Amino acid sequence: MEPPQKPSTSLFDVYLRLRPSHAADAERFLDVEEAGHDYPKHITIKPPSNDHRKRAVERFAFTRVFEEDAAQVDIFKGVGVLPLIEGVLGQESREGRDGLLATLGVTGSGKSHTILGSKAQRGLTQMALDVLFQSTCNGLIHPTGLASVFPSIAASDVSEAQMFTAGAFLDSLYGDGQSERGFGSRAQTPMMGASFLSIASKRNVIPRPSALPQYPTVDIDGIEADSTAEYAIVISMYEVYNDRIFDLLGGSMTSSKAAIQKRRALLFKSTEQSPDRKVVAGLRKVVCSNLEEALMVLETGLLERKVAGTGSNAVSSRSHGFFCVEVKKRRRAYGGSWSTSALTIVDLAGSERARNAKTAGATLAEAGKINESLMYLGQCMQMQSDNQDGTKNIVPFRQCKLTELLFSNSFPSHNNQHHHQHRNPQKAVMIVTADPLGDFNATSQILRYSALAREVTVPRIPSVTSTILSGALTQQNRCPSAGDRSSPTAALEELEAAAKEITRLSEEIDIISLQLTEETTRRQTAEACWQAAEDRMASLEQEVRDDCYEEMEQRIEAERRRWKGAWDEEADKNDEHLDRKIEILTRGIQIHEDPEPTAEERVAELEGENEALKRKLESLERELLGRSPTKKQRVLKAKKWDVDVGFESP
Ligand SMILES: Nc1ncnc2c1ncn2[C@@H]1O[C@H](COP(=O)(O)OP(=O)(O)OP(=O)(O)O)[C@@H](O)[C@H]1O
Questions:
Q1: Which residues have CB under 6 Å of ligand 1?
Q2: Where are the domains of the chain?
Q3: The model's pTM
Q4: Most confident among 105-109, 451-455, 629-633 (mean pLDDT)
Q5: Three-state DSSP class for 143?
Q6: Pocket test for ligand 1, best of 112, 115, 188 (most atoms within 8 A of CB)
Q7: How far apart are CA 381 and CA 445, in angstroms?
Q8: What ipTM describes this predicted complex?
Q9: Class of domain 13-457
């Protein structure tokens, strides 16, 4: 059984790394097959001797198996991280290709050790960053020139990200202007519930690159960046915790504890600038000019990641951690827009059995979510090994955030509608980690769905019937004379044939019963999937109900406010209307009581008065004419004066 050549439908190259076990007295259940001059590719697992269930010996094929003595640098070179980096850098004048490197395994099997290293040794991530910065050093934007190109780098982002230079980002978090920085390692990452805030705010620490492990180093022989290109390296980090995405560079170390607990989940969606491809929207991204800056950003993100102590691992990852290095590239001579390819490194949380991990409460609930997402991942990977025979089953990657993030870019994108360029599917490498002396059930389950090929060998257990019959036949063969005497030859032959048939049938029964056991296990797994899917549906339904209820409440409140506003407005209008009516009425009453005469009426009134006065004057004149001449003279003088000043006599 050879690991099949990777067909186009394959999602991953799958490597197996065995860790040196600390349970020295435990029974070893996993053996690596010698491969002569080649690298080992096959392993067999057999159930432990105290396992009473009749189970088959299973043989698995991987792209390559690394045994316990493999060093970090052997893994780095052996699993092909260098070709992944080369792909991301892209050939001369060509866009790069996305790369994905992930680890999968039971809790405590060495995933984080492989990807992120330890206090003493670098992991694959640090080595990959080292190689990236070394290989792009001639084309990388110099820190002094960064300010002028920064706007164009930020504009090339399609994910609604907030972009920072590393200096600005680190100073905004620690505010020490590159001053002496303390060191916090992953091993000291606080337990679940506490966050980096509690440490950062007290000590205001930041990882100091010189205190981080410097080994192993990697030489970059054979890696060539595009010499005609100008490069910029942008880092972002996020985690998938309880099926929700959270920014690990969100700066919660500078926020209050309540703010950390209320971290805003981000969406994985198509954006306006990225209509044909989903991206994690709204992340903080940091442009790094050198390895030191990149390592500080990495450590900052790791300190925010959820880890907790469990019965299986003192520093167990409680979330799936994603570390993304975007390599932006453009023609050095012409400038212009930047193309982007990303290397995503994923440290998956480990599957665990509650009984072994001795978890409870929130940590147990997290484990449920972790196991559920890994089960969906297992289904996708199972599809990969099922597809090896040429069938092209659809990979069900939309079941949870984890599989969506891992596989959304694994298939070629063709989107003529938006006139976007055809993107190559990402190149992906999965490293499965296992402890050969660890938990047999959990490890065998992961190996079953992650291996590229699997073979089951049925153990030949002699059945009772065949043993008796073969014993009887041997007896007869040993004493032919006795047989001759007791029965004819034909009867003996018949008996032999019957015995053979019985042996064959009992072997068949053994095989069928093994198959039945396997099918039962599969059915149980399927039932567990079904149950998990039902639980998920129920929780989704509850979420939708809650959302609807909240939306309805909001709408009712908005409607109530609108109605109250309309009511108040109507009341104001009525008041105004009433005021106007009263004003008109008042004016009407005033007019009625004291009408203002018009000009004609005034003239007529004055003329009337004038007439009356004239008449009075005439009667007075007449009276005067009947009196003494002196008085008459005075009256005539007054009349003359009237004529002089313009009063006409009637
Ligand atoms: N190959 C190895 N060589 C030496 N030590 C190892 C190796 N693999 C793992 N370890 C050690 O075993 C312990 C657990 O490993 P690690 O934290 O990497 O497990 P994990 O698979 O990431 O677990 P979890 O899923 O719970 O996060 C660590 O102390 C780590 O240093």
A1: 19-20, 105, 107-113, 118, 313, 315-317, 349-350, 433
A2: 13-457, 464-563, 599-644
A3: 0.67
A4: 105-109
A5: helix
A6: 112
A7: 12
A8: 0.97
A9: alpha beta
